[in-house]
Amino acid sequence: MNKLLACLCFIILLPVLVMAQKKDKNAPPKVFDLLIGGYTSPDGNSGITVYRFYAETGRVSFLGETATSNPSYLCVSPDRKFVYTVNEDAQGGVSAFSFDYNSGKLNFINKQSSGGAQPAHITIDKEARNVIVSNYGDGKLTVLPVNKDGSLAPASQTITDEGGSVNPERQKGPHIHSAVLSPDEKHLLYADLGTDKVYINKYKAGKTPALIPESTPFEQVNPGDGPRHMEFSADGKFLYLVNEMGAAVNSFAFADGKLKFIDSVSMVPPGFTGEKAGADIHLSPDGNYLYATNRGALNELLVYATDKVTGKLRFLTRYHTGQGPRNFTVEPGGNFLILAAQKSNEVSIYKFDKKTGVLIPLNNTISVSSPSVVKLVSAE
User: Fold this and answer.
1) Does residue 191 contact residue 231 with C-beta atoms inside 8 Å?
2) Taking CA atoms, which of 30, 61, 155, 328 is between 20 and 30 Å from 375?
3) What is the pTM (predicted TM-score) of this model?
4) Is 208 left (phi over 0), alpha (psi -120 to 50) or beta?
5) Checking phi first, is residue 256 left (phi over 0); if not, alpha (psi -120 to 50) or beta?
6) In three state form, how does the secondary structure of 112-147 look?
7) Would you state the pLDDT for residue 2?
8) Quick one: average pLDDT of 52-56?
9) Closest Cα partner for 303 from 281, 334, 274, 329?
């Protein structure tokens, strides 16, 4: 009788156990590789540094370092087997590495020209067909096909921007700072600090050329604002843009390859007249919060609440950071934020309260020379 009762209980509980297993399988990873890139020098950083990051505690441990020149921005292939980095030199390059996410080890594969000067940003599509490189120095956007072995082929397309804007020191010519694919990857948008424009292109990964300008090819921002980095909402309905020179965050609606301006919020306190320099922008995984960094005299990380219906932002709070808060990343579970403070030579880790939007700095700062980009890769 006891055996029969136990068997019945097991049968009743079996669907619950199966659901629990599925839930665990879909849960965010708990162990990551943290890749840190930046500016290299003989007496400083030599390339890409890799740490193990534990998302249950925020603890980190050093894994290794791989030499490459000025890896100021990098991206990781969707299957986690390859890492691609710009080499932000006068004669720009793009380097490919194989990547073992179990050990954090990187091995150099090959290097191609970035098709321009001082490449500042790189991204890869979901099919790993192409990497797209933004060359800040001379305003060129380059598409480089990815070979089946992970190596990079020479550029298949280069777009050269023209023009300038109102600031004679920063905007005499084009300066492409970043490019972002829409969530459905039917479009690629890129921000040109030098021309104060966000350009809109249709994207077809398997075609040559992969990029074709939309019928309305760009959205103009306020003269002198200097658009820098962007992020789409997960549903692709909204685009958020941080302006470097204007230190403001713009909200746009996005549909059918067109941007429609919604609102702009300042990143500086009322009455502030000092140096400002907006840098990076990201949404929390649940889309409820938006973060942005501002360098210059303030050195701050700002937190905004998002309205998922209107796309508008509401300022919540600001946090003082190390000097030159450049790039940052948000852990997929939404519990941690990791920030590279370039001029303080440190990477800081913050614990995040999802209910309140409050960030709490942890006491485990990573010392690294001139960090400019951080990426988390699942190690599970």
Assistant:
1) no
2) 155
3) 0.93
4) beta
5) left
6) EECCCCCEEEEEECCCCCEEEEEECCCCEEEEEEEC
7) 53
8) 97
9) 281
- Among candidate residues 197, 190, 191, 119, the one with its CA nearest the CA of residue 152: 119
Q: Which residues contact 135 (CB under 8 A, 6 or more apart)?
A: 92, 114, 115, 116, 117, 118, 119, 120, 141, 142, 176
> At residue 373, what are phi and psi to the nearest 5 degrees?
-150, 145
Q: Which residue has the tokens 């450049």?
A: 326
Q: Which residues contact 372 (CB under 8 A, 6 or more apart)?
A: 37, 38, 39, 72, 73, 326, 327, 340, 342
Q: Which pLDDT does position 58 carry in this prediction?
A: 96
Q: Which helix (H) or strand (E) holds 8?
A: helix 2-26
Give 311-357 pLDDT, tens digit per residue.
Answer: 999 999 999 999 999 999 999 999 999 999 999 999 999 999 888 88
Instruction: Give residue 65's identity as a one-letter amino acid code.
Output: E
Contacts 24+ apart (CB under 8 A), 330-333: 330/282, 330/283, 330/284, 330/285, 330/291, 331/28, 331/32, 331/53, 331/55, 331/376, 332/28, 332/29, 332/285, 332/376, 332/378, 333/27, 333/28, 333/55, 333/285
In eight-state DSSP terms, residue 222 is -
d(CA 377, CA 190): 24
Can you give the residue ranges of every domain in the chain? 33-378
Phi, psi of 272 (to 5 degrees): -70, 130
Which pLDDT value is given to residue 1?
A: 47
Pick the CATH number of 33-378 from 2.60.40.790, 2.30.280.20, 1.10.260.40, 2.130.10.10: 2.130.10.10
